[in-house]
Description:
Helix content is 49%, strand content 8%. It has 631 residues and is of the alpha+beta class. It has two domains: 25-431, no CATH class; 446-615, no CATH class. Strands 8-5-9-12-10-11 form a six-stranded mixed β-sheet. Strands 1-2 form a two-stranded antiparallel sheet. It has a two-stranded antiparallel ribbon with strand order 3-4. A hairpin with a 6-residue loop joins strand 1 (75-76) and strand 2. Helix 2 packs antiparallel against helix 6 (109-135) and helix 9 packs antiparallel against helix 10. It is elongated. Mean pLDDT is 88; it is low at 1-24 and 583-594.
Amino acid sequence: MTTSTVQAPPPAAVPTTAMMSGPPEGPSSRRWLLGFWAVVFVLFLAVRPGRQTFDTKLGVTTDPGRFLADLGQLWHDQGSFGGIQDQYVGYVWPMLPFYWLGHAVQLPVWLVERLWLSLVVSVAFWGALRLTERLRIGSVPSRLLASVAYALWPVFTIVVGSTSAAALPGAFLPWVLLPLADERYSARVAALRSALVVPFMGGVNAASTLAALLPAGLYLLSRPPGPRQRKLIAWWAPGVLLATAWWWIPLLLLGFHGENFLPYVESSQTTTETMSATEALRGAGNWVAYLHLVEAWLPAGWTVASSVVVILCSAFAAGLGLAGLARRDLPERRWLVLTAVTAVLILLAGYGGPFGAPFHGTVQDWLNGPLAPFRNIYKFQVGLALALVLGIAHLVGTAAETRGARRVRGRRLAPLVAAVLILPGLLWPYLNGSILNPGSFQELPKYWHTTADWLEKYSPDSRALVVPATAHGIYTWGSPIDQPLDVLAESRWAQRDYVPFGTAGNRRAMDAVEEALLTGGEVPGLADYLSRAGVYYVVVRNDLDPDQIGYVPGTTVKRTLEQSGYERVTGIGPVMTGGRIAPDTPLQVEGLYPRQRAVEIYRPASEEVPRPGQAGLTPVADTAVVSGGPE
């Protein structure tokens, strides 16, 4: 009697689901995380090593301890003429503690900055990789490819090197989803674990966080109806509210008591005109990326918008993602398609260009009105990016799968081919050095430290006015974007801010002063006017970059001051020639009194101009009743 045996199929014939799922969260993926972080860290280090660049807020990076100490009060009187700061409390977690720790161990600011940026990108990669494993989408190579693509997706690349806080919500989105997708946890535990991740998205920009949470909300809505879905929603929604109360309560106070600055910034027509279908799909709809004023405002964004290799590779990545979403065998297809369709409808509803939405005018009006906080609609690209990269993971993993007993040559190369077609373009802003903002600097100049010390000593009870006004801190020595005195000053100071956070009357008064200073001639009553406003010393900065748009020469302002009854008190810093630091001039020159220094301080020449100080009593008979505005 003979027995027949049934031979097992060769490994190539293993069913698709078993082949592609793999063990979730395998230990090998941790090695990929370390390797990915090392590469990204080196790429950040290679760009202007030893020099720091602006990252979201100057005070957070250069003096995190002081920035944290200033968050304990709602009203801030030191800068400008007082006001409620715009969502500064949103830096409390996780950005501020990281920079504070780096400051505590005395690491150079530029090195802490590069560490932070590399970690933000790596968190996005690691979270996407873990999510593909948890959802069992794709094969190991295709998961790696999709995770790298997510971390390098243009929607993050455009902002990470200049405002990394804007990249945090998207970086932590996969981590918010991970507990929700874990069936090992009860509904209550899964929802609360997910909610505890949300604070890591930061609170700097509420609209960015809410936009990034949209895919998580859609994930819950797409669960099979039943007790688990209801419990997930019932625990997750209040959990998120409690976990984010540290920033949305101050945000409500800002809305009630603060100045509404939204009418003075970009309009919905500006934010939607770059959001065509192709740009939305490839993650390049951020309107700021297209600003090229003398030089690119966001070099990485300009590379994304104009580089042929980036355009082709990101478009190909979007195409692969759409193809993956179209496959019926895609795990979690219902949720991913729902997320992609919802994001596309939001992104394209206000676009009025070729093949634009027929009702774009109405949507733009809404974005200029009740929906103004969501005017920058590019923030909703995060959910679309995640859906597309999961589609890439599935499509490439399926393409690499061997079907049947016959081997098809080249199938195993599918992830490599896709990587060659996608990654060079997504990596290009890192490789060409445009990932960081221009205007790097080693440190804030010593003469600005000296200026802050001088004002603290000689102007303890009055406010110094810094002129000429400038939209952003762009100087000959670098571009901190924020003003140096915002970090260094211990006394009160003011300037005409690009975005007003005070009162409407204060804004009009400062506009009148700036217009007067631009005349270059005598302005009768200027000294008395500023004295009544609490201003005695006027700080003239001669180190502003003369190549920036809207530049006003310091000589024009000084001529107005001198003809309007002001005299020069002192000059601080190096000699300036033609708006730039003279060659072979040390950064700090002691004992010299040249005609024009980097910073010059003026005061009223007449003793009759009262010096502002503490509140006091004056006779009613000496007061005047006028009818008019503050200007």
